[in-house]
Amino acid sequence: MEGEAPMKQLRIELQHCYGIKALNEQFDFASGSACAVYAPNGAMKSSLAKTFQDIADGKASGDRVFPDCLLIGAGSRRRSAS
């Protein structure tokens, strides 16, 4: 990534990703180079990590709570498979 400008902000809009019902957040990297997600057990940190891995792998995220939901386009719009 030589020559590219560093990322200053990351906007996340997720719905139904590995049990994450909804997450709308903006991370600001302007003042530093890293952000930490610190939360108690059961707060969906692993689900967020799995969703990021799906994005990196170019595949749609699954959902443990709503397994019949299918990704129908870019972003977080979903519909039932039935």
Assess the beta-strand content as a share of residues.
Answer: 25-35%
Number of domains: 1
Main sheet: strand order: 1-2
Secondary structural class:
alpha+beta
Overall body shape: globular
What's the main sheet like?
2 strands, antiparallel
Strand runs, count: 4
Count helical runs.
1
Overall mean confidence score, pLDDT: 75
Keywords:
two-stranded antiparallel ribbon; 1 helix; 4 strands; 82 residues; two-stranded antiparallel sheet; alpha+beta; globular
Could you outline the blueprint of secondary structure elements for this entry?
Elements: E1 9-17, E2 20-28, H1 45-57, E3 69-71, E4 78-80
Antiparallel strand pairs: 1-2, 3-4
Give an overview of the whole structure.
With 82 residues, the protein is α+β, with helices and mostly antiparallel strands. The protein has one domain (9-80). It has one helix at 45-57; strands at 9-17, 20-28, 69-71, 78-80. The radius of gyration is 14 Å and the shape is globular. The N and C termini lie far apart (43 Å).
